[in-house]
Specification:
The protein is of the alpha+beta class. It is built from eight helices and 21 strands. The protein folds into two domains: 224 residues, Rossmann fold, CATH 3.40.50.300; 106 residues, no CATH class. The strands form five sheets. The protein has a six-stranded mixed beta sheet with strand order 6-7-8-3-9-10, sandwiched between helices. It has a five-stranded antiparallel beta sheet with strand order 13-12-11-14-21. A hairpin with a 2-residue loop joins strand 12 and strand 13. The structure holds adenosine-5'-diphosphate and magnesium ion. Adenosine-5'-diphosphate binds next to helix 1.
């Protein structure tokens, strides 16, 4: 049976009567790395603070290894949750050596056990040679690894990482992301990793979600999030697809300016309803044999392919990837690949 290390059930939380987390439910299975994506201010850090035990939910329940640790009625203190946290600013102790920083959470173990675990984690994080240095004697990337080693040392059931790379220079980030992923995997850690970087999330996540204004819009595998977005705002945030509008026909298909779609969730809609569909920028092609339905308005080389913007007859713009450049003002016929499953979204605005 799969062990659910973390389970959030309809968590809600307000600061001073202003709700910043609304009805958030998710699970993270043992050994998985889960990523929570979302823009600044959407409530990601607050959610981690709730899980770590620094805030108490107004409603809902937080379970760690099938035990409720937080609800409106109940609150297990942070030090009894067995959760490690890697803060955005790392929060290393400047007056302690690398080894002492790492052993900080191991005080209840014998000296021998502490030394052993410190050495093991140092090796895992490739920090052995820096054991006796102080934080100011390390590079940004090395400090990052010390902070992770410190969080991992007590073997917490769950590690929370709050935008761990925001203080590291851009060039180093992608390298570090892979290193940290490997360290977590090597220690069989279970982690919830918060980031606003799409690249970072897709590089590490087994499960991931998009959070906006305190709400978790979708919690799913990275491929499902990409291919089967559950909300138009997920599409807007990932920025990988076009939202194409149309109207449901009498036979249940969605008719749009770029053709007709057979929706995987068509029984949700009635004829004449206005619906949007997410069409990935690389799920569109130019059909030279058909009469035109769009005019090219921009063509930008993006290394390996061109990103074409075209104006559709209904006034909407559409973006797609093409192997070749196309001149501005050229008339073309754009069509979606029809061997895909598309989800429709009712237009409510
Ligand atoms: P994120 O980590 O996604 O950037 P946060 O969880 O830090 O977002 O913040 C969510 C919202 O809660 C923001 O509007 C923020 O201003 C507000 N907020 C955060 N901390 C506090 C606090 N201690 N008191 C009041 N409001 C707060
Ligand atoms: Mg934050």
């Amino acid at each position: 049976m799969i062990n659910q290390t973390l389970k959030l059930q309809s968590i809600a939380f307000s600061y001073d009567y202003r709700q910043v987390v609304s009805d958030v439910s998710l699970t993270v299975n043992q050994g998985e790395i889960a990523c929570l994506l979302g823009p600044s201010g959407c409530g990601k850090s607050t959610l981690l603070r709730l899980i770590a035990g620094f805030e108490q939910p107004d409603s809902g329940c937080i379970e760690i290894n099938n035990h409720c640790v937080a609800s409106a009625q109940q609150m297990t203190p942070p030090q009894q949750r067995n959760v490690g946290m890697l803060f955005q600013d790392l929060a290393l102790f400047p007056h302690l050596s690398v080894a002492k920083n790492i052993s900080f959470g191991l005080q209840n173990q014998s000296q021998q056990q502490q030394n052993q675990r410190v050495d093991d984690v140092l090796e895992l994080c490739r920090l052995s040679e820096f054991k006796h240095r102080y934080p100011h004697q390390l590079s940004g990337g090395q400090r990052q690894r010390v902070a992770l080693a410190r969080a991992m040392a007590p073997k917490p059931q769950l590690i929370l990482l709050d935008e761990p790379f925001s203080s590291v220079e851009t060039g180093l980030q992608s390298e570090l992301v892979h290193e940290v992923k490997q360290m977590l995997r090597a220690d069989h850690s279970t982690a919830l990793w918060v980031t606003h970087s799409l690249e970072e999330a897709f590089a590490v996540a087994d499960q991931m979600g998009v959070m906006l204004s305190g709400q978790l819009l979708q919690w799913d595998t990275p491929t499902n999030l990409y291919q089967k977005p559950a909300h138009p705002d997920v599409v807007r945030f990932l920025n990988h697809a076009n939202l194409v509008s149309g109207r449901i026909s009498a036979d249940g298909r969605l008719n749009t300016a770029i053709g007709s779609f057979d929706l995987s969730n068509k029984n949700k809609f009635a004829p004449q309803q206005q619906v949007q569909v997410a069409v990935n920028k690389n799920q569109l092609f130019i059909n030279p044999k058909q009469t035109s339905n769009a005019v090219v308005s921009a063509c930008v080389y993006q290394g390996g392919f061109y990103l074409i913007t075209a104006l559709l007859e209904d006034g909407n713009r559409i973006k797609f990837r093409n192997e070749f450049a196309i001149k501005s003002q050229q008339s073309i016929c754009i069509e979606p690949f029809n061997n895909n499953q598309y989800n429709g979204f009712l237009i409510t605005e």
